[in-house]
Predict the 3D structure of the following.
Amino acid sequence: MRKIFVSAALTALCLAAGAQTPQNVLRIDVDAPGIPIQPTMYGIFLEDINFAADGGLYAEKISNRSFEYDNPLQGWKTFGKVEVRTDGAPFERNPHYVRFGYQGHPARTSGLQNDGWFGIGYEKGAEYKLSFWARTAGKAKEVGLAGILCNPVGPVENQNMALAEITVKGGKWTRYEATLTAPETLEKGAFRLLLWDGDPQAAVDVEHISLFPAETFHNDENGLRKDLAQALADLRPGILRFPGGCIVEGTSLENRYQWKNTVGPVENRPININRWNYGTFERMFPDYYQSGGLGFYEYFRLAEEMGAEPVPIVSCGMACQFQNDPAWKPNCSMEDLQSYIQDALDLIEFANGSPKSKWGKVRAQMGHPAPFNLKYLGIGNEQWGEEFIERFVPFMNAVRAKYPEIRIIGTSGPYSGGEWFDDLWKEMRKLDVDLVDEHYYSWEGFYEKRADRYDNYPRTGPKVFAGEYACHGSDGKKFNHFNAALLEASFMTGLERNADVVVMSSYAPTFAHVEGWQWRPDLIWFDNLRVMKSCSYYVQQLYATNKGDRAVPITVDGKPVVNANGLNATAAIDDATGDIIVKMANVNPYSQVVRFVLPAGVKAAEKTSLHSDNPMTENTLDAPETIVPETRALDWTPVADPDNAWLLGVRKQKDGNIEYSERLGGRTFAVYRFHRN
Ligand code: AHR
């Protein structure tokens, strides 16, 4: 009895509150021609930060596989007699190799152990392909080696989970292979390669020790970790921006990203210290280097496999401006700029040139005779100042002269506004670049209030590439909490509403290893075995998978739905299905009634919601599905009494339109799909 009383009282209260609640009548102009939403609109930013590539997406399990880190044995533990050598190395750009020698007693062994990055993850039943280059070095003509998937941490009787014996024959460098199957799952395994020979005559030289899962994304050779690449593909990206980010620039020009070092046989790709090795003093990772294994060929291939446009960003001859005092002369001279320009021209030839051309031939020899159809090129990352413009102009002119079809992406610097931003935009307009890269890692207030950011941008001139953005919670809330994702969703309504201005976007950064991050928040977190999609990931995915073809006006009280009672919304039409797609964020903690005015032909609808009662909740690797989108069909049965305004649901209006009303939960991002066919 008491229960009934309380619930009746609550209903009365709600009704009373409802009486004062704005009704949020949302009108969608489905007959408007609308603004085309470009296929490139929602994309991915990939940079090797947070162990995103080496130690992450790149499926290689062995760190420092070519013994080229500054300390050639970094990442390796040695047994017995192991010597680093350079004489007679097989790969000139990776000159170090190791020699395992007789260990002084037939019962002893020499060899190496590698712990990968934060351990090596093995999965029960999975096959791993071991390969290395070797030659005999002692008097013995044949030398036995053992490759071992190893459990160095568990309280086990036998650390050797799987062992393959390989006989090295002769003194000529030869590639050896073996396949090993992991009998159990282990997050922090290791790999050992041991001289398995008690012969005092035995010695062997070894180089480029590599261990890959047999199964990679699309089963590519030199491929990508399947779960991580699949998470990318599931975002249905329109573009893939690579390779960064700051690593494009380098701390000094010597360690900028040089694409030519990342193509051709992997054994001969020189390594580069990763800028994020020492990028922040608070979180340093001495074993963070770029192997170049996930190089430009692999980036182009990944873009193609995902159906995304490749968007490479190249160095414009300026090292990271944040890390350099101009007095240190961090930029290339104007004479040297030509070599940077030539690198960019060669890149276009690598991507698009005929297999008969110099760089097209390299691509073809790597297995892709067809062009990659490169259309965009970013010149510089977060650059600013006169020294940038001085370099950018001849750079752009040279690319345009040779490849007028390539669309040039300029930059607006590191911030969302301010003097550098304004000056750069002025210059970019003057130079008539095709797109301008904008970056905004901003706090909650920006994302909550600035869904109108592009409403008043000029409609002519360069388009916007929102190339790096993420909501960074203030007051220490720098993690992937739900509220950040909700505010991003809310802000993104403004990207889509202004699809004539904004034609590309990518959240950044994308990946982070839970033990190896330097920067957060990030879209996707992982450890050696598992992957976790953040709430921000689901926001990106919901936008990309419900993109629609044309943005059409959606209004409340005759105005765009921007900060309207905490609501932000955008509407689009899917031309193939006729679906009307509404994306709407309610950033208020409380729910509110929303009333959609829809054309007569709407026959059914569904709604996908992303919601959390607690804005500070996040997904974790242990609980990756704490907050996930939920889809349900909306009840399309007309309400019993259409004249009763309190009844929510579907009702036919006198003019033939359909009204659909419901209570949209507080702190909710919702995607409505209204079906007309
Ligand atoms: O995404 C992380 C970093 O943020 C990028 O490397 C850089 O471009 C920006 O400052």
Observations:
- The chain has a mean pLDDT of 95.
- The chain has eleven helices and 37 strands.
- Residues 2-36+550-675 form a domain with the Immunoglobulin-like fold (CATH 2.60.40.1180).
- The pocket of alpha-L-arabinofuranose is lined by residues 47, 49, 244-246, 381-382, 414, 468, 508-509, 519 (CB under 6 Å).
